TrEMBL record:
SUPFAM superfamilies: alpha/beta-Hydrolases. The chain crosses the membrane at residues 12-32, 95-116, 136-155. It comes from Vigna radiata var. radiata. This is Uncharacterized protein LOC106771987 isoform X1. Residues 358-506 form the Fungal lipase-type domain. Pfam families: DUF7358, Lipase_3.
Amino acid sequence: MGLAVRNLSRWSLLVGVSNMAVLLIGAFFIFQTHRLCHGRIAFPALLVSLAAPIRLLVMLQTAFAQEAAAALILQDSNDLFTRLRRRAMYKKWLCWSRSSAILTVLQFLFALYLVLDSTRHFSSSNHCLLDSPLNRTALFAFIILVSFVAILQCFTGSDVIKWRSFYETHDHAWKCHYSEVFDHGIRETLCCLGRFNYMSTAEEDEVYSVARLLGDLVAYRASGTGHLELLAALALLQNHGISTESYEGSMEAPEMRIREAEALHKFAEAAYTGPLLDVGRNPCVFPCAWLYRQGILSPWTRNRRPVLDGDNWWRGHAAAFLKYVNLPPEVLRQGRVSQVKCQAAYFVVVLHHLQSVVIAIRGTETPEDLITDGLGKECSLSVNDLAGLINSNYIHYDIKKNVVSSFPHYGHSGIAEAARELFMQIEGNPERPDSESYGLLSKLLGFGCECFGYNVRIVGHSLGGAIAALLGLQLYNRYPNLHVYSYGPLPCLDLVVAKACSEFVTSIIFGNEFSSRLSVGSVMRLRAAAITSLSQDPKADSAVIFRLARRFLYLSKYQRNNTNAENESELQSGTIKDDINHQMHRSQCETYNEGSIEQDNQTIKGGLGISNYGEYMSFDSEDCLNNEHEECSLWSDARARDHSVGIDNAKFTNAFAKDARSINDPVSQFIETVPDSENPSSNDPPELYLPGSVIHIVLEKQTSQSDLKTLWRMQERGKCYKAYIADRESFKDIIVSPSMFLDHLPWRCHDALRKILKAQTAEDQVTVPHII
């Protein structure tokens, strides 16, 4: 692949020609100074003139490295050797690019030095070079040229060749390119934060997976449009006045759930033992607030604090957690704050006065947590992951049958891996899903143990809430008194499993928070909504709209790399279903035959206050473990909905009905390729949903404006909220609003829960005297 002039960027040509002019004119002034000033040399002009050829040399080397990296990208190979060569070539290109950036800074400083030195000579007007008017004019022009080059290079970047001249519209090339860019960027950021091991990793680790996903999302560059145009389209979405879904006539959330969720929220919030919690609450004095929470001012209490895995020497994370929940040290039995790949930070608390064991899981706080969030591609869930549903005697038979018959099931890969690792931490390594365990929970909650008969509550915010839900799926068959409260979790389960765990998992969503709507499918639909928003804006440039349409055409289908693996997965999933159904049938027959056992089970259920559970079962899942699959059969449930993006697809289609008749119209092609939930395709990514029963907290709107006294009282009390039972499918798409990030702050949800309970208490106090 030859280095042609047509492949060079226009700005690079301008910078190269300008530096060549600086070199020639600078050499002339150095010669003139040496001739007219008795052998003296103009030192500032010498620095500027020497920097110009060095910059040209670095630009040339950068161009060669850039060309070699692009050539490896276009090979379209994913073997390990090619990836290692590509990574090495990208490192070489980055090295030359950064050398160019350093030279840009030096040339700017040299130009500033030249300007200051020349100003001194002009003011004195006795310099030997300024005797001639021609020399003065030439020097003035040279100073302007050097200043122009120094400023120009600050805005042109280090790329010499246009990437588009190599990649053109090849979607795969752009994906690989941005995967490498994100991979190097993430690794270097982690290295700057002290995680040096990520720089030496050669295999496909979590960073590589996250970078590949980000590369897929940014591959719209294949159509020739930039990042700023997409940001402009997203800004247009916000201007449509999107509001939350109307809940008129909907069922309000049970007060018992709201009360318990409010009481346990402090544990999910206290799990943020790092400085992140204090940065949000005390942005100006957060270092002091964090050190105070860490107990740095009371080191004599160190020995009374529990020892946590990964804590600092003064046991500050344990102190921060206990100080926030205002509990004595003896209640904190176990925990971890260290972060290694997909390992979640957690705290196990025993509350004897409430007869409960609380497991608090921390949300996103460290770079490793961000990597776990970024592993958003789907993964298949094994039988062990769903043991709490399949092997539990407290789940209705029809629900279990639906879960078993619809295998394979999917979940968020990063969250699923973190939940599996956390299960090993607190429950040990049981040989089978229904076998005896020797972990911490078993020692606390086992028969005759300290906390026998206590309730188990698992709580977490954001990433921690999603991990808590998947951990509950593994523990519910062992601890039927378990309930999970997930505050602002990420979508992490497929629709069948998300509905099946509604008995013991509650997801609480506040306002328009983005995390509960963030998934690969929602991001793809948000890009689809961007072109619709541009098309409805009368000031939008039609050329931009068409380019955006062509851009999204490349990303409308989810490409699969191995068709044979898909067919093999379908065969394996069929085997799993057959094995599980066989085990269910055998277990059901045993239940009917053993009448005494069934009678004992009914006695136990009656003692626990359980009724109307229909038929129960428990089966051996060992045969299913050998058939665990890696690939999955994918489906799509990805139509953009009006309530989430504020766009009416029917209006958009009518507005472009005339233009869509042309077969070459990219807008009409784009409309045809938007995923349809009514006609799912096996080539589209599976949709992930919020786990369990979903409670949505929304700001209460005043519909009546005539009662000014009531309105004034509402304003005096502040904002009022309501909590409703919501449909999980209404959280499939991202809402672009000013509060989408602020609503995710944990204390805003906690404050709303308090106001809801306070309003209910006030209503009860008013209603009781009225009845009397």
